[in-house]
């Protein structure tokens, strides 16, 4: 029996340090719509390049590299095929992640990542130094980047909202407030799952026009623009998906206090964020945590840190439920109840 030798540590580290070209290669393949061009079957690089307006030898090299990670596959005739890792790059794929890939590889993220060391030294987001203002203010002032981010978040959400809704026993009546709900993908899934619920999508004014709720019918939801550091609308169930991870502890306590104040008797608050375990294992949240460090004052947290935040806001964590997605459900009620 033979066993694979351990990788040479030096080559392994060097290869990992060059790993950013993998993200760049994936973005290039998305921009050139290679996955879409392979939807009807395998093709030669020359055929793909002619359609995509690309240089055939360069495209062959790009795809050869991506194939080393299972994104596309080359056969003995030199034709490239879709694979399970390449298919989600298609815009029309059932669980397409195309818009999400374009968002997480966007220029504002790349350039901020060059300052990660400074972010670690200072404890301040790299983004603010490079772009001169906080991330969400920048998005508001730059509609193209704002649309790219909001569409990307909506895409990342779309692949997980059904898993989240299926993991939590939603109430059958009352009002759900999706706080910082973006385009409302989670609220849409919740309202579809429970026809007796009504909803409020609450976000910054520039974000709400892109919402996905129209198909529900106007009687089922309201759009409310505002600032969750000031106040949030009244309701029975508060959803905070990928919101607390954007903010410092003090800022999170303010958001949670505003939810507690606005919440009707018997109300609940659900934080839907990665909940990090104290181990050395890979976790999607440990990767998104690096994005948080680059962009915003927040971070991904562990269970104790969530309990502390809720406690400081007059709320009590009742349970933490895993979901098949990257986020867990941290459920809380008013501390006195
Ligand atoms: C990381 S996104 C999450 C969006 C959505 N919940 C999801 O999971 O797809 C954070 C959201 O918070 C919103 N947001 C940021 N600052 C806000 C504020 N001060 N008041 C209300 N919403 C805010 C952003 O516009 C954005 O939609």
- Please tell me the total number of domains: 2
Backbone CA Rg? 22 Å
| CATH architecture grouping of the largest domain | 3-Layer(aba) Sandwich
Instruction: Say what the CATH topology of the largest domain is.
Output: Rossmann fold
The span between the termini is 62 Å
Number of helices: 16
Low-confidence stretches: none
What is the CATH superfamily label of the largest domain? Vaccinia Virus protein VP39
State the name of the first-level CATH class of the largest domain.
Answer: Alpha Beta
Oligomer: single chain
Number of strands: 9
Q: Name the shape in a single word.
A: globular
- Alpha-beta content class: alpha/beta
Describe the biggest sheet? 7 strands, mixed
Summarize the amount of helix as a percent range.
40-55%
Q: What portion of the residues fall into strands of 2 or more residues? A: 15-25%
Mean pLDDT: 95
Outline:
The protein is an alpha/beta fold and 337 residues long. It is 43% helix and 16% strand.
Which terms would index this structure?
9 strands; alpha/beta; two-stranded antiparallel sheet; 2 domains; globular; 16% strand; O-methyltransferase activity; SAM-dependent_MTases_sf; Rossmann fold; WH_DNA-bd_sf; 337 residues; binds S-adenosylmethionine; single chain; 16 helices; seven-stranded mixed beta sheet; Arc Repressor Mutant, subunit A
Topology:
Layout: H1 9-17, H2 20-31, H3 34-37, H4 45-52, H5 56-67, E1 73-74, E2 80-81, H6 98-104, H7 107-113, H8 116-122, H9 126-131, H10 135-141, H11 143-158, H12 161-166, E3 174-179, H13 185-193, E4 197-203, E5 221-225, E6 235-241, H14 249-262, E7 263-273, H15 284-295, H16 303-312, E8 315-321, E9 328-334
Parallel strand pairs: 3-4, 3-6, 4-5, 6-7
Antiparallel strand pairs: 1-2, 7-9, 8-9
Helix pairs in contact: 2-5, 4-5, 6-11, 10-11
């Amino acid at each position: 029996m033979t066993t694979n030798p351990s990788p040479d540590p030096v080559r392994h580290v060097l290869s990992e340090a060059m790993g950013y070209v993998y993200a760049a290669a994936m973005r290039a393949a998305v921009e050139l719509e290679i996955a879409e061009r392979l939807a009807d079957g395998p093709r030669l690089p020359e055929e793909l390049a002619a359609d995509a307006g690309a240089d055939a030898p360069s495209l062959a090299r790009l795809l050869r590299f991506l194939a080393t990670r299972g994104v596309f596959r080359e056969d003995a005739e030199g034709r490239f095929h879709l694979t399970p890792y390449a298919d989600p790059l298609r815009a029309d794929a059932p669980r397409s992640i195309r818009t999400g890939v374009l968002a997480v590889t966007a220029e504002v993220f790349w350039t901020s990542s060059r300052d990660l060391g400074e972010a670690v030294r200072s404890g301040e987001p790299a983004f603010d130094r490079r772009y001169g203002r906080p991330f969400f203010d920048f998005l508001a002032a730059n509609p193209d980047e704002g649309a790219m981010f909001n569409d990307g978040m909506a895409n990342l959400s779309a692949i997980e909202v059904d898993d989240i809704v299926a993991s939590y026993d939603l109430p059958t009546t009352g009002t759900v407030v999706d706080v910082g709900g973006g385009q409302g993908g989670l609220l849409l899934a919740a309202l579809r799952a429970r026809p007796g619920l009504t909803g409020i999508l609450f976000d910054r004014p520039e974000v709400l026009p892109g919402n996905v709720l129209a198909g529900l019918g106007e009687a089922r939801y309201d759009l409310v623009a505002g600032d969750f550091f000031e106040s949030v609308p009244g309701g029975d169930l508060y959803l905070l998906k990928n919101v607390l991870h954007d903010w410092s502890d003090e800022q999170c306590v303010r958001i949670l206090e505003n939810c507690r104040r606005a919440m009707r008797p018997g109300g609940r608050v659900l934080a839907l964020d990665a909940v990090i375990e104290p181990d050395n294992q890979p976790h999607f949240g440990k990767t998104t945590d690096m994005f948080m460090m680059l962009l915003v004052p927040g971070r991904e947290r562990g269970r104790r840190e969530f309990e502390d935040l809720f406690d400081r806001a007059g709320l009590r964590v009742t349970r933490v439920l895993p979901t098949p997605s990257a986020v867990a459900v941290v459920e809380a009620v008013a501390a006195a109840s």
